[in-house]
Structures are given as structure tokens and as C-alpha cells.
Amino acid sequence: KQEVTQIPAALSVPEGENLVLNCSFTDSAIYNLQWFRQDPGKGLTSLLLIQSSQREQTSGRLNASLDKSSGRSTLYIAASQPGDSATYLCAVRTQGAGNMLTFGGGTRLMVKP
Amino acid sequence: DVKVTQSSRYLVKRTGEKVFLECVQDMDHENMFWYRQDPGLGLRLIYFSYDVKMKEKGDIPEGYSVSREKKERFSLILESASTNQTSMYLCASSPLPGREKLFFGSGTQLSVL
């Protein structure tokens, strides 16, 4: 059964710093991996979707990479801002699991002014 | 932009009540999902549907049922609410599998007293 882990569970950085969030998964037979952002008490917003054949995706200050063979993905946030403060979750769609996504527990990010 | 609308932001119900949570999406998506999110347990899939009148159990279907009579609407039913069903409920939708992003509603915080 697929397991997705995100470390650290919480991270606090000063404004302007570049940072990396980590996501690891146990079964490398995946279709794709998504990164989401969740603000407190709200739903999730999809940030980036990486297909299994891709190595990375970029959107503005965000860059997500995927190393399927090692079961790892990273979300790189450049020049962090207080508005980036949120919980970031990754989720994988695993081959043989149909439409089901497996979510990590999330990393709670705080960017201090 | 895709819009996924959950009918209630907050709900308070009594133990034993039958509870209906409604979700509507406006992008003609085939797939719809119900998750619950609990501190320390992350997001867990309750049920999903890939077509009208079709449903599949997720990881934690016990105590829940679903209804999808129309493509745009997916309802989650708590047959007899219990206190351990107090949680944040999140609805999501996506197009057919392959290159999909998952779009979430804002969530319903349900308290069962």
C-alpha cells in the first residue's frame, strides 16, 4: 500500500529565504504527483501536477521536481513571502489504485516578515 | 475557473441524526470525491464516483453512503451521525484520469454533539 511522507511537519523561515519542502513515497509505480496548498480552515488548491514521465514543473516562484525511481519529490519556493504561509501537501496517484490519491500529512510553513 | 461548491461551511448535528452534505461542480467533471481531514490523520478518502450512479468505496466508507444522481452533484450521507464523525469534510472533482488536477471545495466543518 502506498505511503506518502512529508518532512518536516512544520517549518518557519524569515521572509525572502528560498526553501525546499520534501515529499517521499514508497511505491514508485505512480501516474502523477500533485502539490497542494491549504490555508487554515479552507479547502486545498492545486499548485503543480507532475506526470510520471516528467522531471519538473514550474509556476511562478514555485518549482516541483520528481525523482520517481527514488520515490521523492521536492517543492522549491523562491524568495518566500508572508503570503506563502500555509500547509503544503503532496499527493500521488498510484498505478493499480484507480482514481485514488494518497496524501502526505503536509508541511505547515510560516514565513515571518 | 473550476468551481466546487459545498453547501454548508459549518454544520452542528446531534448524535443519531441523518446528515446530508452536498457538493456541486460546474466543469462537467466525471470524477468526484469525498474526503475527511482530521489532525494527525491527514486526508482520507471516503467514497468516489467516476460517473452518474457509479460509486466506489475509499479507505474509510463505514458509516457513510453517497449519491450521484446527476453528473454535477455528489452527496455524502451520514446515516446515523456519531461523535467520531466530527471532522472537516472536503469534496473534490477532476476530469477523466490521465492529466487531471484535483479541484477542492472550501470544506464543511461538521460537529456531531
Topology:
The complex is a heterodimer of chains A (113) and B (113).
Chain A: E1 4-7, E2 10-14, E3 19-25, E4 30-38, E5 44-51, E6 56-59, E7 62-67, E8 72-77, E9 86-94, E10 101-103, E11 107-112
Parallel strand pairs in A: 2-11
Antiparallel strand pairs in A: 1-3, 3-8, 4-5, 4-9, 6-7, 7-8, 9-10, 9-11
Chain B: E1 4-6, E2 10-13, E3 19-25, E4 31-38, E5 42-49, E6 56-57, E7 64-70, E8 73-78, E9 87-94, E10 103-104, E11 108-112
Parallel strand pairs in B: 2-11
Antiparallel strand pairs in B: 1-3, 3-8, 4-5, 4-9, 5-6, 7-8, 9-10, 9-11
Brief account:
By secondary structure, chain A is mostly beta strands. Chain A is built from no helices and eleven strands. In chain B, a hairpin with a 2-residue loop joins strand 7 and strand 8.
Description:
The complex is a heterodimer of chains A (113) and B (113). Chain A is mainly beta. Chain A is built from no helices and 11 strands. In chain A, strand 9 and strand 10 form a beta hairpin. The radius of gyration of chain A is 14 Å and the shape is globular. The model of chain B has no long low-confidence stretch (mean pLDDT 92).
Distance between the termini of chain B: 37 Å
For the sheet with most strands of chain B, the description reads: 7 strands, mixed
Any idea what the shape of chain B is?
globular
Q: Segments of chain B where pLDDT lies below 50 for 5+ residues?
A: none
The class by helix and strand makeup of chain A works out as mainly beta
The total beta strand count of chain A reads: 11
Give the helix tally of chain A. Answer: 0
* Helix content percent band of chain B: under 10%
The secondary-structure class of chain B comes to mainly beta
Q: What is the radius of gyration of chain B computed over CA atoms, rounded to a whole number of angstroms?
A: 13 Å
